[in-house]
C-alpha cells in the first residue's frame, strides 16, 4: 500500500478506481493549465480527498521526509534519478505506450529540474517514440490483494508502470533539448508558509495539527523531483510573526532555515479566493543572490505545492525563472 501511495498520479479517472475501493474521492482541476502562471509540468498528481488509511500511510511519508534528524541535503543515486512512474490501466500494449509517453515527460523533468522542456516543440516527436528510450519497465497492481470484481479482469485494473532508463540515453535527449542533468545533492527546503481562508489564518509549523494535511501534501509534491522539505517549529515561527513571514528578506529566512534542518528557505503564502474558486499562492526563493518570485491562481493547495516544488527545482537546477 505504501508503494501505491507513493506513486505519481496521472489521470484522475484511473486513480478514482483505487480510491473508490476505500471510500475516497478524486477531483480534477480542469482549469489548472489555463489558470496557472507557471511554465511547468502538468499532472504530477491529482488532488485527493484521502480516506483515513491513506492519510496514515502519507503521515509515515511525512515523518520520513521531515524526520526527527533532518538533513540539509540528500545525495541522489543514478538508479533513483533515471526512472519515473505513472499509472496505466492493465498491462496491454496500447496503454503501455501511453504510459511510456508520460514517463518520458517525467524523467526528463526529474533529471534536469527544468519544467519548460515539456513545452518545447521537439517533445512531440520524442513522445511518439517514447518506448524506444526505455531500458526496462515493470508493473505493480495498485489493487494487489483486492479480489477481482465481477466482470472485471486483470486487463482493466490500475497498475503502476515504472520505467527505468540508461543515464546516457536520457542525457543525450536532454542535450538535444538544450538542457543537462541536475546531478549531486538536492538541498532540503525549509518551508515558511502562511495560509489564509476568510477569518482563519495560520503559519504552517512542524507540529500543529491543523497543518497536517498541508504537510502531507508537500511531502507528496517532493517525490517526483527527489526533493525534500522540513517545517519550522511553532516557537520559531512565533518569533517571526505572520508579518515577518510575509515580508522578511530571504537572507534572514535562509538563516532560520538552517535552524529548522534545511539548507535554504522556500517562503510562500496561500490565500483562498471565492472569485478564483481556489487558492492563490505566491512563492519566493533566493539563489546566488537573486530572489525569484512566482505565482499560481485558482488551484487546490495540492497543486499550489506542486508548483512551489517545481519552481524551486527549476531555480536550483540553474534553469531560471519559473
What's the short version?
The chain is α+β, with helices and mostly antiparallel strands. It contains twelve helices and twelve strands. A hairpin with a 2-residue loop joins strand 7 (186-197) and strand 8 (200-203).
Order of helices and strands: HHEHEHEHEHHEEHEEHEHHEEEH
- Strands, count: 12
Low-pLDDT sequence parts: 1-69
Question: How many angstroms separate the termini?
Answer: 34 Å
Biggest sheet details: 7 strands, mixed
Secondary-structure map with pairings?
Blueprint: H1 2-6, H2 12-20, E1 25-26, H3 32-35, E2 48-49, H4 52-66, E3 73-74, H5 78-81, E4 83-89, H6 93-112, H7 123-128, E5 136-141, E6 158-164, H8 167-176, E7 186-197, E8 200-203, H9 212-222, E9 228-230, H10 234-247, H11 250-259, E10 264-273, E11 278-287, E12 290-299, H12 301-316
Parallel strand pairs: 7-9, 7-10
Antiparallel strand pairs: 1-2, 3-7, 4-6, 5-6, 7-8, 10-11, 11-12
Helix pairs in contact: 4-9, 9-12
Structure description:
With 322 residues, the protein is an alpha+beta fold. 39% of the residues lie in helices and 23% in strands. It has 12 helices and 12 strands. The strands form 3 sheets. Strands 3, 7, 8, 9, 10, 11 and 12 form a 7-stranded mixed β-sheet that branches.
